[in-house]
């Protein structure tokens, strides 16, 4: 199995390293436009292979922005990938929203998608770059691929933050918690508290409404909290999430993972991308699960999807 990771910044490099540690892929190719970064990070990772028993071959290539021929040569190294993870673009700084990145990142993702698809026409694409719901929509529409093959990374990341905060509150290992987040990857995302459980028991039986509301909010702003602490976007959990999704697809695992999917009537939404429970496997999205949301959850989901639509409406201007 071959996975390519486009963008060797913090998130892309973490994704490549986690893929290597998972040791299921024959080859992981890390590509960046900045000379030396991919090559250096790939070599550094390969120098952990002995200690970490990694058989996966990690390769770094540079696609210079000022040399189309060399860039094409670099993308040639990614050819026939089973999965391509796109992390290219700038991360946000403290005080920025993910939508603030659309001007720069929409052009980058459009170009990267064109080049990666040319060399891996059968691949499944995982979009990580923000604003991720909108850039997933852009990648899908621009490529003309079927909706099962273009997926955005967010729900599993947000769900992991939700589980982290629940475990902190209950005082238990996170493995005892099961929780999901749906909707767009922004402050209006929908932590599904009613569905969350601790060792199979509803968390609503264990924590007060006030505490649960506090945890829901902490989850919704979880990315921003880390950006304030770090001075840039988080990378360990986002990179690990992308690698986990790529593994589920490459291994045809059939795992249900909250993923950004193109909605064509599911949850009453059309022509928009947002996070919903999806069965991931060979070919990408195998099935979208439509949960029986109550009125409040549906209203929250609609508002969250509405925020993605608002950002989608900015695409045309951003791509000029
Ligand atoms: C986050 O929430 C980078 O959007 C990503 O950390």
Explain what you see.
The protein folds into two domains: 2-152, Rossmann fold, CATH 3.40.50; 155-319, L-2-Hydroxyisocaproate Dehydrogenase, Chain A, domain 2. With 320 residues, the chain is of the alpha/beta class. The protein has helices at 10-22, 37-46, 49-52, 68-76, 102-119, 132-143, 155-170, 209-220, 222-230, 236-250, 295-312, 315-318, and strands at 2-6, 27-32, 57-62, 83-86, 124-127, 150-152, 177-178, 181-182, 190-191, 197-198, 201-202, 255-264, 270-281, 284-288. 44% of the residues lie in helices and 20% in strands. Helix 1 (10-22) links the parallel strand 1 (2-6) and strand 2. (2S)-2-hydroxypropanoic acid binds at residues 98, 130, 185, 223, 226, 233-234, 238. The site of (2S)-2-hydroxypropanoic acid (2OP) has 8 residues, from helix 9. Substrate binds at residues 92, 98, 130, 161. Residues 1-152 form the Lactate/malate dehydrogenase N-terminal domain.
Given as residue ranges, the uncertain stretches (5+ residues, pLDDT < 50) are none
Mean pLDDT: 97
Alpha-carbon distance between the two ends: 37 Å
Q: What percentage of residues falls in helices of 4 or more residues?
A: 40-55%
Approximately what portion of the residues adopt beta-strand conformation? 15-25%
Global shape: globular
Number of alpha- plus pi-helical segments: 12
Hetero groups in this structure are: (2S)-2-hydroxypropanoic acid
Count of spatially separate domains: 2
What pattern of helices and strands is seen along the backbone?
A: EHEHHEHEHEHEHEEEEEHHHEEEHH
User: What would CATH call the architecture of the largest domain?
Assistant: Alpha-Beta Complex
User: Quaternary status of these chains?
Assistant: single chain
Radius of gyration, in angstroms, nearest whole number: 19 Å
What is the CATH T-level topology of the largest domain? Answer: L-2-Hydroxyisocaproate Dehydrogenase, Chain A, domain 2
Report the strand count: 14
Can you tell me the CATH superfamily of the largest domain? Answer: Lactate dehydrogenase/glycoside hydrolase, family 4, C-terminal
How would you characterize the largest beta sheet? 6 strands, parallel
Side-by-side strand order of the widest sheet: 3-2-1-4-5-6
């Amino acid at each position: 199995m071959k996975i390519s990771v486009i963008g060797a910044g913090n998130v892309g490099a973490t994704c490549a390293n986690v893929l290597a540690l998972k040791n299921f892929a024959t080859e992981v190719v890390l590509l960046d436009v900045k000379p030396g970064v991919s090559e250096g990070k790939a070599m550094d990772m390969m120098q952990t292979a002995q200690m970490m028993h990694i058989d996966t071959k990690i390769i770094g290539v540079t696609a210079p922005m000022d040399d189309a021929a060399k860039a094409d040569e670099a993308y040639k190294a990614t050819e026939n990938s089973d999965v391509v993870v796109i992390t290219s673009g700038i991360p946000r700084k403290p005080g920025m929203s993910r939508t603030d990145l659309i001007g720069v990142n929409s052009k980058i993702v459009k170009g990267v998608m064109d080049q990666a698809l040319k060399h891996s026409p059968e691949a499944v694409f995982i979009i990580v770059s923000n604003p991720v719901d909108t850039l997933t929509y852009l990648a899908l529409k621009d490529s003309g691929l079927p909706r099962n093959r273009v997926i955005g990374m967010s729900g599993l990341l947000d769900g992991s933050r939700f589980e982290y905060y629940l475990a902190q509150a209950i005082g238990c290992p996170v493995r005892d918690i099961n929780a999901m987040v749906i909707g767009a990857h922004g402050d209006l995302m929908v932590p599904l508290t009613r569905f969350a459980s601790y060792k199979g028991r509803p968390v609503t039986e264990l924590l007060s409404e006030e505490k649960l509301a506090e945890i829901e909010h902490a989850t919704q702003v979880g990315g921003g909290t880390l950006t304030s602490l770090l001075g840039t976007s988080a990378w360990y959990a986002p990179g690990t999430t992308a690698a986990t999704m790529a593994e589920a697809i490459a291994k045809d695992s059939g795992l249900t993972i909250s993923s950004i999917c193109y909605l064509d009537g599911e949850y009453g939404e059309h022509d928009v991308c947002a996070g919903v429970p999806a069965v991931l496997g060979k070919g990408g999205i195998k099935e979208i699960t439509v949960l029986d949301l109550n009125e409040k959850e549906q209203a929250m989901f609609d508002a969250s999807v509405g925020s993605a639509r608002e950002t989608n409406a900015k695409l045309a201007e951003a791509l000029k």
